[in-house]
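Obj: model holo form, ligand = fe (ii) ion.
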Amino acid sequence: MRLTDPIIREGPQLHVEYVAFDSFGVKSMCVRVETPDITVTIDPGVAAEANSFPLPVEKRRALLHHYQEAVHESCARSQAVVISHYHLDHLQPSRAVDLYGGKTILARDPAVMSAKQAETATRFFKTIDGLPKDKLWADGRKFKFKKAALEFSPAVWHGTRDAEPGTVVMTSVSWGKEKVLVTSDVGGPLETSTTDAIYSAKAQTVIVDGYPTYHLGQLASATPVRQHATDYDLVRSIVNLCRILAAPGLKTLVADHHLCRDYRYPAFFKLVYDKAKQLKKQFGTAAEILGKTSAVLEGYQNYGPTRWHKWFPLEARDARAVLERAVAEGRLDKEWTALFDRWVA
Ligand SMILES: [Fe+2]
Ligand SMILES: [Fe+2]
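Output (holo structure tokens):
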């Protein structure tokens, strides 16, 4: 090498910045991905945690303001902003130049959204009219920015299939062979087709929305569409997370957002933590990946319990029994016990 040769940066070129997450104490899964060719902020929204979150209301409000600022700062440093769906923990509906001014917005066509989200989307685009540089509909498309690529999945279910929230898109950002995938609100994931797509994405880092265990026991059988969490859905999400951990090339799996609103999560997801250890892969909430304690656990330690007082770690035998029961009652396809044996046990 001659002294006049350009300096070539060694090591990873794609940097993932965890901007705002439920494990930091706000409803959000905002990520900034920096590459040499483009910097993108995914889902620039933040909302305050609910009363079941073990922090006093003034602390939750202070965290909200802090992370709203962090998201503004993140967008100001980005050329592109992704909006995976139109829930207010994924976008800020304000006419702020630093959020949207001069940016390429990659979002979802309101025409393909559920009625409620389409309404929010239409209002949102009216609010920011004239601010962005351009606006591109994302579903199932790929956009190149020199060596960087932004790729969007076709619509996937927002948690439970056919439920009212509708769908989201998953976002991958890659640069050369480096890739991160951010799922948005897949709520587990629950669906096999969603898990298939994550498994085969060839991402080194996957950031998923974990299962909303705070809904457990609230099965809304009176509603025509099952919207709320059940114990077998929790086990399905465990099977799917263990499968994602086994994906070739995957190094880090972050599970956050809905999962981090319930201080029981380390007990409920024990099997996934065990599997990660066995496979020598990194698994945890965004806070844990950064070497910190999740806000919900810190809150529980400092302020005590809110809604839940007694619970147990979910062990393999009990988890499998939950699936067996659901299969016997005809609520779940029998392939799930085989999937459990293959990926978890
Ligand atoms: Fe959502
Ligand atoms: Fe969300």
